[in-house]
Amino acid sequence: MASVKIPDTKVQELKAICQKFRNDGSELINVLHGAQELFGYLPPEVQEIVADELNVSLAHVYGVVTFYSFFSMLPKGKHPISICMGTACYVRGAEKVLDEFKKLLKVKVGETTPDGKYSLSCLRCVGACGLAPVVTIGERVYGRVAAGDVKKILGEY
């Protein structure tokens, strides 16, 4: 992964997020949420600053970032797409929906389109099992999605 140069103004904003939580290592998850909101993702350079500011090991920060699926070490697209692969969604055809997104966007799960418009990921459960299969694009939730609906959904963006 290429090194990311973080502008000094963003470094100061990140340090302010850490200070908001009293530079307390037990607030790591809250700090990481704020950092991801600020940067859109959590590259190693951001993780290093957080580790230094909270006085925790970089390995600990990395462990938290890689454990929780909400956190991303790669930049997300302008319109992040997530397909639920929980049991209800899976048995109702989520895999076919995912395959259609991959085919139309020409990306694999975890990738972002070259134009930066879309990124594709899977979730374990959205909590809307009655609407299975479920797709989210940003904050918008689409329920009862079939593979044939994917092109129309993408057309909205």
Automatic annotation (TrEMBL):
Family matches, as InterPro entries: NADP_DH_HndA-like, NuoE-like, NuoE_dom, NuoE_N, Thioredoxin-like_sf
- The answer to whether UniProt assigns keyword Chaperone to this entry is no
Q: Does the keyword Isomerase apply?
A: no
Binding residues for [2Fe-2S] cluster, per the UniProt record?
84, 89, 125, 129
Task: Spell out the CDD domains in the cross-references.
Answer: TRX_Fd_NuoE
Q: Which molecular-function annotation in GO is an example for this chain?
A: DNA binding
Q: How is the cofactor bound?
A: Binds 1 [2Fe-2S] cluster.
The coenzyme or cofactor needed here is: [2Fe-2S] cluster
Pfam families named among the record's database cross-references: 2Fe-2S_thioredx (PF01257)
| Keywords (A to Z) from UniProt | 2Fe-2S, Homeobox, Iron, Iron-sulfur, Metal-binding
Q: Which Gene3D superfamilies match?
A: Glutaredoxin, NADH-quinone oxidoreductase subunit E
* Coiled-coil regions listed: none
* Family listed: Belongs to the complex I 24 kDa subunit family.
Record PANTHER family: NADH-QUINONE OXIDOREDUCTASE, E SUBUNIT, POTENTIAL NAD-REDUCING HYDROGENASE SUBUNIT
What is the name attached to this protein's record?
NAD-reducing hydrogenase subunit HoxE
